[in-house]
Amino acid sequence: MSAEAESYYSATAHPWPTQPLLRGELRVDVAVVGAGLTGLSAALELAQLGYKVAVLEAQQVGWGGSGRSGGQIIAGWGCDQSKLVALLGREDAKRLFDWSVEAVELIHQRRQQHAIDCDWRPGHAHVPLKPRQVSELRHWQDDLQRNYGYHTQWWSREQLGEQLASNRYLGALFDANSGHLHPLNYTLGVAKAAREAGVQIYERSAVTKLDSGSRPLLHCEHGRVQADSVVLAGNALLSGVSATVENRVMPVGTYIAATPPLGEARAKSLIGNDMAVADINWALDYFRLSADHRLLFGGRASYSALQPPGLRATMLRRMRAVFPQLADVDFEYLWGGFLAITMNRAPDFGRIDGNIYYAQGYSGHGMAVSGLAGRVIAEAIAGQAERLDVFQRIRHRPFPGGKYLRMPLLATAMAWYKLRDALF
Ligand SMILES: Cc1cc2nc3c(=O)[nH]c(=O)nc-3n(C[C@H](O)[C@H](O)[C@H](O)COP(=O)(O)OP(=O)(O)OC[C@H]3O[C@@H](n4cnc5c(N)ncnc54)[C@H](O)[C@@H]3O)c2cc1C
After folding, report:
1. What pLDDT shows up at residue 309?
2. At 401, is the secondary structure helix, strand, or coil?
3. Cα-to-centroid distance, 354 and ligand 1 (Å)
4. Distance of CA 169 to the CA centre of its chain
5. How far is ligand 1, taken at its centre, from the CA of residue 326, in Å?
6. Which residue from 295, 352, 414, 420 has the highest number of Cβ atoms inside 10 Å of its Cβ?
7. Along the chain (424 residues), what's the average pLDDT of each consecutive run of 10 residues?
8. Which atom of ligand 1 is nearest to the CA of 365?
9. Which residue of 235, 245, 275 sits with most ligand 1 atoms within 8 Å of its CB, as the best mutation to test the pocket?
10. Cα separation of 330 and 196, whole Å?
C-alpha cells in the first residue's frame, strides 16, 4: 500500500494549518477518534449543540479514505436496498434510503454554509458491462422509483455514447442528484468548520488504548483524554483500540491514479457532461474528471496490506480498456487507501458499553453517508437515539478468523466473485 505516496488530492489541497499533538491531560464531553468525515461530522454537529469536543487523529486530517477516495458522492448504501429490506423490513429500509439522500443534501448544506470550495460536479452513472448487469440496473431503477420515489434515468448505449467516449458499456443508470467532488478539500472544509465551532483537533495523536467505564479514558503517546462519551471513527484504520468494533469490518486496499492535465477539450471528449462513472463489477472500475481536466481512474482492490505487484501497469491497462484513445497517456499520481467492508456490506453503526459510539463499514460507499453517520451519532449522544437504534437493528457478524485470518478468507471469497464477473 503506497499510503505515504503523494496523491493528486494532497498535491492540490487547500492550505491547512498543522494541528497540535495532544500533550498532557484533557477533559471533554466527547472525544472522537479519527479525523475523517465520520469523526469530523460528529464533532461539528456536537460542537454546534454546545458540547466540548476533542478529535484525536493518528496522522493528519483526511489521512484515511475521506481524503483519498474517488470522490464519488452517491445516494444509497454499499449494499443493495433488497439486502436492507431483508435485514430491516421495507419501512426501515426506506428510511435508510431517505437518509442516504439526506447525506448528499448535507454535503450541499455544508458546502454552502461553510463556503467549502471542493469542485462539486453533479451527475453519476452506473454502467453495465454485460446483459445480466443491464437487467440488474433496470430492476434497480424500477425499485428506486416504485418503492423509494427516487428518480433516475435509463440511458441506452447510444445515449450513453453522447456523453462517454467508451464503447465498453451497454447503457447507464444516470442519477442527476449524485455527483463528485475533491474529497480532501471537502474534508478539510468540514474540519475547518468544526474548529470554528470550537472543536479541538489533535494530529499525530494516535489513540493506543481505550479504558471503558462511566468516564472512558483514551491514551495517546504523550497525553490522555477523559470524556463522557467516545466516538470511534477510525473505520478501516482503527487497530488495537476495540477488538469488538474492529472485528466487524475488513480493511480492503483500493487504488486510484491521475493522469496529467489533458486539456479541457481532450478531457471533455472523454466525459462530455463531467459526470462520475462506476461499473457494477465486484472489483469495479470508477472514474471521473478533475477540475483541472485530468482523468482520475480507480480500481484494483487488494485483500492484503501490501501494494499489489505491477499495480501501475494493471491500472494503465484497465484505464486503456475503457479509453483506448489514452494509449499515449501515463499517470502522474498513483495512490491507495483502505476502505472497510462488513460481511453483509450493510453499514455498521452502534454503541457499546453505554457510552462508546462507532460508525464504520460503509463498504466502499462512505463519502456521503459518513457525514450522516456523524450526525446520527451526535443525535444519539444528545439523547435522540431513534435513528441509531434503526442502524443497531442490522445484524452484523464478525469476520471469521479474527484479525489474522480474515484477510486470506476474504481474498478467497473475492476471487470467486471476480471469477463470476469474468464468466457471466
Ligand atoms: C481509494 C479509495 C477510494 C474510495 N472511493 C470512494 C468513492 O468514490 N465514493 C464513496 O462513497 N466512498 C469511497 N471510498 C470510501 C470512503 O472514502 C470511506 O467510506 C469514508 O471516507 C470513510 O470515512 P471515515 O471518516 O469513516 O474513515 P476515514 O476517512 O478512513 O478516517 C478514519 C481516520 O481515523 C484515523 N484513525 C484510525 N485509527 C486511529 C487511532 N487509533 N487514533 C487516532 N486516529 C485514528 C485515521 O488516521 C483516519 O484519518 C473510497 C475509499 C478509498 C480508500
Report:
1. 83
2. coil
3. 25
4. 25
5. 30
6. 295
7. 70 97 98 98 98 98 97 96 97 98 98 98 98 97 97 98 98 98 98 98 98 98 98 97 95 94 98 98 93 94 74 95 98 95 96 97 97 98 98 90 56 51 48
8. 11
9. 235
10. 41
- Residue ID of nearest Cα to ligand 1 atom 35: 34
Q: How far is the centre of ligand 1, averaged over its atoms, from the C-alpha of 363 (Å)? A: 11
Q: What is the pLDDT of residue 5?
A: 60
Q: What pairs with residue 287 in β-bridges?
A: 277, 297
Around ligand 1, the residues with Cβ closer than 6 Å are 33-39, 56-59, 63-66, 68-72, 74, 206-207, 233-238, 241, 254, 256, 286, 298, 337-339, 362, 364-367, 370
pLDDT at 2: 42
64 CA distance to ligand 1 middle (Å): 4
Report yes or no on whether pTM surpasses 0.90: yes
Domains located in the chain, CATH noted: 8-415 (3.50.50.60)
Grid coordinates belonging to 204: 499525530
Under DSSP, the state recorded for 155 is: E
Number of the ligand 1 atom closest to the C-alpha atom of 41: 25
Q: Which amino acid, residue 345?
A: R
- Structural contact between residues 239 and 75, judged by C-beta atoms closer than 8 angstroms: no
239 burial type by CB count under 10 A (0-12 exposed, 13-18 middle, 19+ buried) = middle
> In which residue are the cell numbers 497517456 written?
329
| Residue carrying C-alpha cell 437518509 | 99
Give the per-residue pLDDT at 231. Answer: 98
